[in-house]
Amino acid sequence: MKEIIGNVVPGNALILISGVESKDGGTPDFDCGLAAQNMFIAATSLGLGARIYGGPAGAANAKREALQVPAGYKIVVILRVGNIDKSVDAVSAASTRKKADEIVNYRK
């Protein structure tokens, strides 16, 4: 998985969320997205860090056999869950804001 998601941290769990590919052209994307969202919310409510990856799921589908994904299933999203550094929060980790005149151009 490290070649699919480059920044895998030891001790994190990677959850492959997949669904059955239907024969009528329907996709499991929406349902898998909802499942990922609910697991993300549950993980963060437990004080864990979580991140949802959509793009790497396509690369993971190319390695279905190695990842033991059953035939007929499509990996839609990957959820990474793990412990986070409790000393860092949204305020201390945020970059400094630029002043408005540095990013806004006024025209007369």
Quick structural gist:
The chain has 108 residues and is an alpha+beta fold. The protein is 29% helix and 21% strand. The protein has a 3-stranded antiparallel sheet.
Spell out the blueprint of helices and strands:
Layout: E1 13-20, H1 29-45, E2 49-53, H2 56-61, E3 73-82, H3 90-93, H4 100-103
Antiparallel strand pairs: 1-3, 2-3
SS strand fraction: 15-25%
* CATH class group: Alpha Beta
Number of strands: 3
Classified in CATH, the superfamily is NADH Oxidase
Subunit organisation of the chains: single chain
Task: Explain what this protein looks like in three dimensions.
The protein is α+β, with helices and mostly antiparallel strands and 108 residues long. It has a single domain (13-103), classed as NADH Oxidase, CATH 3.40.109. It has four helices and three strands, in the order E-H-E-H-E-H-H. It has helices at 29-45, 56-61, 90-93, 100-103, and strands at residues 13-20, 49-53, 73-82. The chain has a three-stranded antiparallel beta sheet. The longest helix is centred in the middle third of the chain and has 17 residues, at 29-45. It is extended. The model has no long low-confidence stretch (mean pLDDT 83).
Keywords:
three-stranded antiparallel beta sheet; 4 helices; 3 strands; 29% helix
